[in-house]
Amino acid sequence: MEAFYKEYGLVRQHLDSYNRFIDYLLPEIIRDFKRIQINENTVVEIKDYSIGEVPLAKDVDVGEKEVTPIKCRLRNLTYSVPLYIEVSISNLPKTYKFKLADIPVMLKSKIDPLSKLSDEELVKLGEDPKDPGGYFIINGSERIVVAQEELASNNILVDKVEEGSAVTHVAKVISTAKGRRSQLIIERRKDGIFYANLRGIRIPAVILMAALGLTSEADITTAVSLDPEVQSYLLPSILQAQPLFPKIEPGEEVDEKELRRKCIEAMLEFIGSRVGVGRTREQRIERANRLLDEYLLPHLGTDSSEETRFKKAIFIAQMINKLIELMLERRGPDDKDHARNKRLKLAGDMFSQLFRFVMTTVYTKEVKQSLLKILSRNKRFELRDLKTLFKQGMLSDKISHAMATGNWPGGRTGVTQILDRTNILSTLSHLRRVVSPLARTQPHIAARELHPSQWGRICPFETPEGQNIGLVKNLALQAQVSVGVPEEIVEKFLYRLGVKPIVEILEEARVKIREGSSLEEYSGWCRVYLNGRLIGYHPDGRELAELIRKKRRNIGRNEEWLLEVNVAYIESKYLKEVFVNCDAGRIRRPLIVVENGKIKLSKEHVNAIRKGRLKFSDLVKKGIIEFLDADEEENAYIALKPEDVTPEHTHVEIFLPSIFSITSCIIPYAEHNQSPRNTYEAAMAKQSLGVYLANFQLRMDSRGHLLHYPQKPLVQTKFLDIIGYNDRPAGQNMIVAILTFTGYNIEDALVMNRSSVDRGLGRSTFFRLYSTTEYRYSGGEEDKLTIPTSDVRGYKG
To answer: Which of 128, 401, 453, 646 has an alpha carbon within 20 to 30 A of 596's alpha carbon?
Structure first.
């Protein structure tokens, strides 16, 4: 336990997410905006970018200078580093380097100088060594980006529709990629026909797949399923679309490429008639192409290449397949509240969304408009025009405003909040909070209830009372959030393990249909999904899942990315599926591996950790401990205690009370309490007064409470030292007795011992900040703050 918290800390999820933004998401966004085409002859291109090594802030007297967090808090500055880009413009010989924006720095992240300092050096800078970081300083205020709980993007969810509707079954997917967000709905209506609903436009699903490149009935049925019974339910949809497929006369020679072109053109014309009513034929086809490329499943790509369109067609085919299996009762409706269908959006993801938005609305728009104005005036662009074109820190105001108000692109509010500094528990609890976007005024009973899949991921007790109950949650103590791995790496890895790509199976299907044979050899194969997308088939899904786990438990050189991958194998009478997840935002938790009834963690390992020869991450790399997400946990049989382990078990819990959160883990004998009492204590512990930070004398908090004589609790749990509560205690041990006192009817009265109060029992100091500004006026006059003398009116001594 101690080794886990020493290495991972309690705010690792925010630090990992922000570091991912700096390392991967920021360069990706800059690449996406690399070229701006102004006109035929003029292109603005970003050649390179760099991030400043030290945080800088504007000072009234000396301009920009290096700052520390404590200076930013005292002088109402933003703790940020400059982002520089080097741009070139057509026909100009030189490149120009300028500051694009000030990027707010997350304290203790990789670009924060504090993360490299020792405790003694932190004290010299006026910082508390026990401060966990994971927050930002914006205009002098400490603000955090609260973790947002959302439905997993790019994941198919199927459900039945209540009777009385023309639709019987529905499949939904929310596709998000590079700032785009689009919902696709596939409906099965009572007449048995499948329709796609995109941006309010209803298109027959078979026509949509044909427009994307599956231009024959055989291609469509094979893409949906290899099972003849499932394929038969496509007949009404295929018959509806048949008139649009090109006719082949008997004995006519067939040019497959030409036939394919005609088919796609006919389908695009049909879609264009729905999206471009009253337009010319060319405009209708252009609109149809734009719908397919930009708005249909953007996470699979937004270009018009055959490969991207093929991926989209296969994805739609899988949505239809899941609907038919739901209709045949081979699978049940998806549970939206299961942890497998949830993802957390952390600081890195939210920053990525914000930065992409300001690049689109400010950088691209301003540069294009300014350059066109200069060209229309001068006809030529010269070096002296560069400074007027690129304003220093042109994105800074938008980023700073969003961080200071919590108002994010897309209309979301409350994304950032002022960090709660009442005590150390309230601070850590705030940093591990998870917020659902659901409306507080609606019941949402299922969403508010505790779900079994949240065991070890979400605290069962710490949630507020009232309308926020169950919608504002807290991470359990050992819960970690996945950082993610690029899909391409994992996809290649799966193909090396024997997964047969869907493209190859479709090619074989075409050949066999021409020969008059069937694909029976693949009928028993297992479908393999990567982040919810079908990538191929494998002859033995159980063997594939075990092989991935074996590789993860014995990683080689440059294979640390495997530790982020989770795999689940699902088998029933009709279904065989392998789900491989490598995306960011999955809540995972560590468990000790059990093999053949033997726990892999030995006493030697524990002793090596105590002596500092091994770290917790070393145990993970050796396959002794592994992080499971909610999907893979469905395949696990977990023992609660080591003595419960049998040969059937796959894992054992590290420490059972780690299912609690920061505030509920301090409750002694929590299992003996009535459940609501634990919830009340989890809320009230955050209101207790104590020493919230060791550097309180150096800070100018707008309000702060300081208890004069804080004490350690007499009865403690194991977590008090781990979370640092005993170093920054809150509250006092008051010895109380329940007595009748005078024997009269006193119900809720408190009788205090006078000598205890005289000695300082419960004594605290409340600090409030009063601020004003000194101004210098024209004519030489200036304001001066001084201590008043007795001759000043209103002097009180």
So the answer is: 453
**Residue where a domain terminates, one of 659, 684, 707:** 659
For residues 288 and 362, state if they share a domain. Answer: no
Domain that holds residue 756: 675-768
Residues 356 and 243 in one domain: no
| pLDDT confidence of residue 252 | 65
CA gyration radius, the chain = 31
Cα(679)–Cα(664) distance, rounded to whole angstroms? 8
First and final CA of the chain: distance in angstroms? Answer: 56
Tell me, yes or no, whether 427 lies in a domain: no
C-beta pairs of 391-396 under 8 Å, 24+ apart in sequence: 391/366, 392/98, 392/99, 393/82, 393/99, 393/100, 393/101, 393/102, 394/100, 394/101, 394/362, 394/363, 394/366, 395/100, 395/101, 395/355, 395/358, 395/359, 395/362, 395/363, 396/80, 396/101, 396/102
pLDDT tens digits for range 138-166: 999 999 999 999 999 999 999 999 888 89
Is 692 among the domain residues? yes
In angstroms, the CA 470 to CA 444 distance is 9
Helices H, strands E: what count in the chain? Answer: 27, 31
10 Å CB burial of residue 593 (0-12, 13-18, 19+) is buried
Which domain CATH number covers 375? 3.90.1100.10
Closest C-alpha to 686, from 369, 425, 399: 425
SS (H, E, C) 648-677: CCCEECCCHHHHCCCCHHHCCCHHHCCHHH
The mean predicted confidence, pLDDT, of the chain is 90
Q: Which CATH number does the domain housing residue 225 bear?
A: 3.90.1110.10
- How far CA 492 is from CA of 186, 483, 501, 735, in Å, comes to 30, 19, 10, 65
* Strand, helix or coil for residue 240: helix
Q: 537 and 564, same structural domain?
A: yes
Tokens standing for residue 716: 């403690």
- Asked whether residue 467 is assigned to any structural domain, the reply reads no
Place of tokens 């703790």: 79
Nearest C-alpha neighbor of 300 from the set 286, 314, 320, 319: 314
Q: How many angstroms separate the CA atoms of 618 and 624, rounded?
A: 9
For the sheet with 157-160, list strands across it.
157-160, 167-177, 180-189, 194-198, 201-204
Cβ-contact 133, 114 below 8 angstroms: yes
pLDDT on residue 38: 81
Mean pLDDT across the stretch 744-752? 77
| Per-residue pLDDT reduced to its tens digit, 431-490 | 999 999 999 889 999 999 999 999 999 999 999 999 999 999 999 999 999 999 999 999
Q: Are 519 and 532 in contact (CB under 8 A)?
A: no
Distance from C-alpha of 169 to C-alpha of 325, rounded to nearest angstrom: 11
pTM of the model: 0.92
Q: Which residues, other chains included, contact 211 with Cβ-Cβ below 8 Å and sequence gap of 6+?
A: 264, 267, 268, 270, 271, 288, 292
Q: Which helix (H) or strand (E) holds 755?
A: helix 754-758
- What are the residues whose beta carbons fall under 8 Å from the beta carbon of 89, sequence distance 6 or more? 42, 43, 44, 45, 96, 371, 381, 386
- Residue type present at position 61: D
Pair (350, 219) in one structural domain: no
Number of domains in the chain: 4
Q: In the predicted model, is pLDDT for residue 111 greater than 90? A: yes
Whether 593 contacts 553, CB under 8 Å: yes
CA dihedral of residues 298, 303, 305, 307 (deg, nearest 10):
-30
Q: What is the Cα–Cα distance from 145 to 524, expressed in whole angstroms?
A: 47
pLDDT (0 to 100) of residue 563: 94
Per DSSP, the residues of 37-59 read E-SSS-EEEEEEEEE-SS-EEEE
Q: Which of 419, 434, 458 is the last residue of a domain?
A: 419
Residue ranges of alpha helices (H) inside 581-710 are: 603-610, 616-621, 630-633, 675-684
Q: In what order do the strands lie in the sheet with 416-418?
A: 136-138, 141-145, 416-418
